[in-house]
Amino acid sequence: MSTPVIASGQITISALIDGKQGEDGKSLVINVISSRGAHFHEDTDSTVLRAIVFLNMVEVDLNGTEYMYRWFKIDNNGERVNFIDGSVHKLGKVITVNADEVETKAVFHVELLRSLSG
């Protein structure tokens, strides 16, 4: 049995908001922020991507335990591709992206899933 996605958001190494109707008709929005902005200037650069979740305009899940977060990498052609370590996706409210992960441009898409414990 697969876990249903209840919201998603993404970043093209810049912030992008993607809102969907949440449970019970409540407004659920994900804002993805990058600790170092939208560009890598050196091969050693890295950034921390954080998914911020709002329910009816109030930030929720501050500790990342209420929902499950699943990140994907999308290439220039709009195709999902593996991360540099070979993984299909990363899990967690926060992930680190290193410069070697981005050849020219990459989109990092996050899906919000209901926690298995909830």
Brief digest:
The protein is an all-beta fold and 118 residues long. The chain contains no helices and 10 strands.
Task: Give the topology, please.
Elements lengths: L4 E7 L5 E5 L5 E8 L11 E10 L2 E3 L6 E8 L5 E2 L8 E2 L2 E5 L8 E8 L4
From the spread of the alpha carbons, the general shape counts as globular
- The number of helical segments is 0
* Helix-strand sequence: EEEEEEEEEE
The averaged pLDDT comes out at 80
Straight-line distance between termini: 16 Å
Question: Could you name the ranges where pLDDT drops below 50 across 5 or more consecutive residues?
Answer: 12-20
What does this structure look like?
- With 118 residues, this protein is mainly β.
- It has one domain (5-114).
- It is built from no helices and ten strands.
- It has strands spanning 5-11, 17-21, 27-34, 46-55, 58-60, 67-74, 80-81, 90-91, 94-98, 107-114.
- Strands 1, 6, 7, 8 and 10 form a five-stranded antiparallel beta sheet that branches. Strands 2, 3, 4, 5 and 9 form a five-stranded antiparallel beta sheet that branches.
Keywords:
10 strands; about 50% strand; globular; about 0% helix; five-stranded antiparallel sheet; mainly beta; about 120 residues
